[in-house]
């Protein structure tokens, strides 16, 4: 028997962005598109358990969302002139010319990532409109409060409407300047899937990582010579390649050094390595995503964690720090320093980062592990407790709890 609630969840995962994009194209209003899509899914939650799952859930949801949008527009009296009324009733506008990439979700991304919006607003809006993330999930991705995240989305939609931001893929001459915001969005969508923060989701959200990779491939087809687009795609592929080995059968996160490397996806690794080599061969100074991809290439080149070239990893992080001197990058560099120079040296680096990362669970998890390796059990347990308190991922929480409890033995 088909579980109607599971089908609604699956339809949301697979169809949210398509429905929002189609509504945006038709009605030209992000607010209308988002609310109508949300109402359609709410109706499905109410009706499918009683009426049964329709043969084509996506078509049912799209039709329902269109009707919800039309009802709202009529109630609000926003389509008074004959031309707009015809559009609502018949949707008979002539087709637009096919662009370099004919994908409505990509158009939606470039609309949400328009430079007229602040960077934070672009990311939040796209995570909501394209990724389908909830406001709490977006808040966790930003390390901000839910109210602040919600306000960013609301202001961004209002700005899109007021500025009449077009719903289209940019022209070839405008594309390079628009890519950085798009890449930041795709990276955050991927990260939310790679280590999901929502308490009601699985620890790894393959739907989000797959969608981020798919959209990044589309952007790469638009700008194949752009190093950062290539770098981000390589980074995603090399990270996604390890997905099957990242969570144990009991639902616990498996650290990189403990993963079964035979379970890694060899095809994704080969493609990621090829892209990294392709960028190295150009001789052009790499950007942030290219360096991150190179770090992952080093990790995925080692058949055993003991074969990892940690000196190369630290050297790459040194390069990354110059490009992105953020405390998170410094924290990740410290993890590599611990392997090269020992936990005591790394702990001194980590302790200097506390001011900027006190609310970041990975800071406390890293510190807990270094203290454990130094035999400082009581301090390590306290750091694990704080990391568990801040972590939102169920698999990561299980891993941290086990490591903490081992201190007692």
UniProtKB/TrEMBL annotation:
Biased composition range(s): Basic and acidic residues: 75-92
Region Disordered: start and end of each range?
75-97
InterPro entries linked to this entry: DUF6596 (IPR046531), RNA_pol_sigma70_r2 (IPR007627), RNA_pol_sigma70_r4_t2 (IPR013249), RNA_pol_sigma_r2 (IPR013325), RNA_pol_sigma_r3/r4-like (IPR013324), TPR-like_helical_dom_sf (IPR011990), WH-like_DNA-bd_sf (IPR036388)
Q: Which Pfam families match?
A: DUF6596 (PF20239), Sigma70_r2 (PF04542), Sigma70_r4_2 (PF08281)
Which keywords belong to this entry? Sigma factor, Transcription, Transcription regulation
UniProt record similarity statement: Belongs to the sigma-70 factor family. ECF subfamily.
Q: Which residues form the RNA polymerase sigma-70 region domain?
A: 19-78
Could you tell me the superkingdom of the organism this chain comes from?
A: Bacteria
Residues forming the DUF6596 domain are: 178-278
**What Gene3D superfamilies does UniProt report for this protein, alphabetically?**
1.10.1740.10, Tetratricopeptide repeat domain, Winged helix-like DNA-binding domain superfamily/Winged helix DNA-binding domain
- Tell me the organism: Saccharothrix xinjiangensis
PANTHER family from the xrefs?
BLL6612 PROTEIN, BLL6612 PROTEIN-RELATED
Q: By what name is this protein known?
A: RNA polymerase sigma factor
The residue ranges of the RNA polymerase sigma factor 70 region 4 type domain are 109-159
